[in-house]
Amino acid sequence: MSLESFFNPESIAVVGASRQKGKVGYEILVNMIEAGYEGTIYPVNPKADTIEGLKCYPDLKSIGNIPDLVVIIIPAKFVAAMMQQCAKVGVKSVIIITAGFKEVGKEGRELEKQVVNIARQAGIKVIGPNCLGVIAPANKLNASFGGDLPAEGVIGYLSQSGALLAAILDMANAGSIGFSKLVSIGNKADVDELDVIKAFGEDRDTKVIAGYLESITDGNAFVNQAERISHYKPILLMKSGGTQAGAQAASSHTGSLAGSETAYECVFERAGIIRCDSIKEQFDYAQAFADQPLPAGPSVAVITNAGGPGIMAADAIERVGLSFAKLADETIQTLASRLPAAANFNNPVDVLGDALADRYEFALDVVLGDPNVDIVLVLLTPQAMTEPVATAKALVKLGGGKRNKPILACFLGAEKVRDGVKVLRQGKIPQYDAPESAVATIKAMADYVRWHTRPKRVVKLFPVNRRKVENIIERHFRQNVREIGETESKEILEAYGFVTPKGSVATTAGQAANIAQQLGFPVVLKIWSPDILHKSDVGGVQVGLNSEKEVKDAFDLMMYRIPKKLPDADILGVLVQEMCSGGKEVILGMNRDPHFGPLMMFGMGGIMVEVLKDVSFYLAPLTAEEAKQMLINTRTYHMLKGVRGQEGVDIEIIAEGLQRLSQLVTEFPQIQEMDINPYVVGPAGTTAIAVDARISVEQV
Amino acid sequence: MSLESFFNPESIAVVGASRQKGKVGYEILVNMIEAGYEGTIYPVNPKADTIEGLKCYPDLKSIGNIPDLVVIIIPAKFVAAMMQQCAKVGVKSVIIITAGFKEVGKEGRELEKQVVNIARQAGIKVIGPNCLGVIAPANKLNASFGGDLPAEGVIGYLSQSGALLAAILDMANAGSIGFSKLVSIGNKADVDELDVIKAFGEDRDTKVIAGYLESITDGNAFVNQAERISHYKPILLMKSGGTQAGAQAASSHTGSLAGSETAYECVFERAGIIRCDSIKEQFDYAQAFADQPLPAGPSVAVITNAGGPGIMAADAIERVGLSFAKLADETIQTLASRLPAAANFNNPVDVLGDALADRYEFALDVVLGDPNVDIVLVLLTPQAMTEPVATAKALVKLGGGKRNKPILACFLGAEKVRDGVKVLRQGKIPQYDAPESAVATIKAMADYVRWHTRPKRVVKLFPVNRRKVENIIERHFRQNVREIGETESKEILEAYGFVTPKGSVATTAGQAANIAQQLGFPVVLKIWSPDILHKSDVGGVQVGLNSEKEVKDAFDLMMYRIPKKLPDADILGVLVQEMCSGGKEVILGMNRDPHFGPLMMFGMGGIMVEVLKDVSFYLAPLTAEEAKQMLINTRTYHMLKGVRGQEGVDIEIIAEGLQRLSQLVTEFPQIQEMDINPYVVGPAGTTAIAVDARISVEQV
């Protein structure tokens, strides 16, 4: 969807323009005029002849021309009628500032539906309602009541909160941060966050996309498009308020372990979106992405004129997991040849408290040339001889140089460095108020680069028996059953290439002993009933049975005890199963997020998942790399690989299991939640066995 | 140590005062005059008659009076001679601004020693050298070259980095943050961080102690005094650069698990010191501690005029582990009776975008009165009708009210809220630039209150056989052995009330079988040699031996195989020991920090400590509560308590073990590192067994 007519209209009608100061209809008109808009403005108000010197029209029709853009400020109850006028006249783009729609309850929701219906039928694009408007500094367009026109820049901003956008604008203006476009999406009845992000993606003037979101309209489309756009433009988002998916009563492990934020974390990770926790952090990051090249790697060098801040930066670099560049011998020698003897020639390079601008310039030039350095952070504290302005100029000069490495500055202080900071801002060197903020920004850049250079995503498709699974699921729907039982769960797993334990159901103790004899000892007995989901809790599982006698005893005890505990349960017999021992138990799972689809889970089995919640999540479908990364992301990964002489297990086969499960839940959206638990894995080369599974389905 | 003569001197001699602009000797004199100092200033400079209109003296003696305070700015090589003059004249307090001492290497270190010796002999207190000076705004004293005199306030600040202090002063002046005193401690050759903290502790004008430290001179004294002072004044510290203790090659688990920051974390935790990660964070916290009462509990209510920031605050409150106050029914009804219907009457209370100051005032007054609310955070975004100044006035009015609950404000924006923020500052309502910063501050306050209200520390002393341990350790020193062997380690443990496994050493297979017979099966065999520390690595441990035959076989195999692997090891036989099974294995440990003494460690045994590093540390000596808290601080605590029907183990006996170990290592400073691993613990009421221990000692 092109939003060009919102960003660069040739004429604008302001419906609800007012002569009364303080009214939104007045503020918007004045903002538009003061921004120096070069197209034509048509105030529409039947009760006025002129407003602020502009001729006023009683309605849209009387304008005579079709305005490129209509901004609507009249009360909510009149908006639908006005939209009909727009349709009649042939308007194609409308911003509805007016509040009082979906956000106020049922009646408002109805009004909003009406408005959208009219718009859709007439092919009108609508931003809002309940929004602040649209701003495009390069086109001198301020169709908003958010405040003064900000400086021109390369950051495209969208916000789901109008009030927050107003605060952001005010802060940006104070800090001279520039924007390409700003869009307040309000209730996003028509144009939504993704439409704006896509428009920013195509917009030549926008280099960085930033925004504040509370919800996402179409999860799948968002993931796919954001991932595509992230490849060439960084997307920096604040996201508040978790999805409610995690709060649902969950019957599987996976469901109960997925927190309310898990889905968004997976989405951001997949799509390469850089998450920001506060406005300040977002500004910090956006400046560097807007004005500096991306680093080739994560090695940071620090130049400082005081020890304390240098140590603080070094601590922060270590804390966030960046690497502290080891300077090349040549660099150290060159520094030593010109810096005073008391200076520190290693990273952090200390040019000493009496350093003038030339010493900074020399050190920065040398350090930038070091092949071991990817990024340079320059710290300055205002001391007696310090030259903040001249030093800033040196940074600006070298920043534009041929090395193409990012330079970040942290001039500490306020009054004493103010003019230096101005020079940095004008010269596109991002300036931070603390070493920690600069380091956090470098971390965001390094993470983006890592995401950027990951291998191309290729999802492997395994040959499977899809028809069989279809039949089982359909049968369950016909019988109105939502939980798939043990036998059929295993059939589903086998259809997707999993190996399950051998065994069959016995109805007498003798039969159980016979089956055990054929399987070979030890065996496991499990009570067999469609009504008992948590078998262990009622004593319905006995492991490690080593003889016919033990099997018979266990069978009879279950048949005697369980009906006493659960008199209403329909007991069909006891499953006698080979015992899978010797391997490690892991859990493979899936929980379907209502917005983003299947979230895959991996975790160590047993106590690890129960107590430590040592699990990792990823959005399906999984590539081989992503499946493996899920293992690596758990704390217990080392245990799987083998520690202290213990043999490790087959990592590849677990990753393959995750990919097969990912294929299954992607091909069957009816599967809502699913665990394979335990999935027993041995050393490389052995067969992994899916011992138990829980699958629940819903008609979609 | 009183520092009164530094903070409030009646006369000051400035040795090295200069007429030359830009020189430190000029800057300091001018700073002193411009601050409006009301005592007498004596510039000392043999080459000048007057400087800035003040009569100049050729030396200290010629002044005629004894100045209360001498500030020295002359080159390092002349400082010792000047100190001698000070001694002769009878000066008692000196600030040495001059650099070029310890920080520049060996020669400077010698110079510094000379200076300190002269001072100590003459009873002169020295601040510095290599420092910025001292500032006391209420006394109009600016004996520094840090910049303009800051506003008067209640924060006492000390800094080990002069450059950082200059930046902090500049930032504080820009933000109108006031101080009671500021001290740059420089090389802290005489007056150190603890002297200043103690002076601030006693200073009536100082309500909050804040500072930046890179090292601590006397660890034990620091912990004790800081803990004492924290009881009545909050101490907020930035600390950079970890202790090197963790980087030492460590032979014990505990040693290798203690990171470089572990000791400082333990110290801050024990002493109730609030750690700050950046200058901004420190300012954020300090303002609230300075100007607001402490909260009675951790329940936060939020009032906002926009949804977005309200959600952001709620997210942050949940993230940091504070509680989101549940408003009382009465509060909700009262709010509903006067706020517009579209407002939100639950927490976060949304007074809507068109809220004027009166609506904020009403809501704040009602919410403050709610017994479920401990702290109120007021958010404001500048919208069309918003009244930042009047709203700020309302906050100030209610802030001084009878409720005595802390109020924090977050007025978002810049220009549009500037005047409102000024009103807040003057009215002592702390203002934050983001909801997240305000929430982090509330968290710091709540943590301090929790520390403050913890039970009184009582360290239990167990009856032990101290003499026995003394003998063993002394014997080792005589033999020049630093690692205590298995038998004697167990004697030490038994002397401190631990139970160790039964067993004895066999020299033949037959003897081994006999011992096993007497102990009862199963047993463990361990190779017995002073030269083999890592028995398992050479096959020197065999567990779970169930018969005489198995014991004999294992014995002979060890005797055959191990000498082949380690031909030089002196093998004394094989230890036959009862096997402790059925319980859970934990590890109790100690690593002695060179500055702060014994750090106690607790962790789960085996793979948990190897792979997950699931351990907790605490400073010895431990109270019963602290020992128990160490268990709770591990992720695996739930596992100890019992999960999913598994019986838990005896928590109390583990805590007692930690206290006994704490007593041992406190009473024997010779013990450098020590692990009890595994310590096998069963259900409540059973005996816990210290199966193995590693103890290393050093003469002290």
Please describe what this structure looks like:
Chain A folds into four domains: 4-214, Rossmann fold (3-Layer(aba) Sandwich); 293-452, Rossmann fold (3-Layer(aba) Sandwich); 466-578, ATP-grasp fold, A domain (Dna Ligase, domain 1); 584-697, D-amino Acid Aminotransferase, Chain A, domain 1 (2-Layer Sandwich), CATH 3.30.470.20. Chain A is built from 24 helices and 30 strands. Chains A and B meet through helix 5, helix 11, helix 16 and helix 21 of A and helix 5, helix 11, helix 16 and helix 21 of B.
Fold topology:
The structure is a homodimer of 700-residue chains.
Chain A: H1 4-7, E1 11-15, H2 24-34, E2 40-44, E3 50-51, E4 54-55, E5 69-72, H3 79-89, E6 93-96, H4 106-122, E7 125-127, E8 133-136, E9 141-144, E10 151-159, H5 162-174, E11 178-184, H6 193-202, E12 208-213, H7 219-230, E13 235-239, H8 253-257, H9 262-271, E14 274-275, H10 279-291, E15 299-304, H11 307-320, E16 323-324, H12 329-338, E17 349-350, H13 357-368, E18 375-380, H14 388-399, E19 407-411, H15 418-426, H16 435-452, H17 466-478, E20 483-484, H18 486-495, E21 503-506, H19 509-519, E22 523-528, E23 541-545, H20 548-565, E24 573-578, E25 584-593, E26 597-604, H21 607-612, E27 615-619, H22 624-632, H23 637-641, H24 651-667, E28 671-681, E29 689-690, E30 693-697
Parallel strand pairs in A: 1-2, 1-5, 5-6, 6-7, 10-11, 10-12, 12-13, 13-14, 15-16, 15-17, 15-18, 18-19
Antiparallel strand pairs in A: 3-4, 8-9, 8-11, 20-30, 21-24, 22-23, 22-24, 25-26, 25-28, 26-27, 28-29, 28-30
Helix pairs in contact in A: 3-4, 6-7, 7-9, 10-16, 11-16, 12-13, 13-14, 14-15, 17-18, 19-20, 22-24
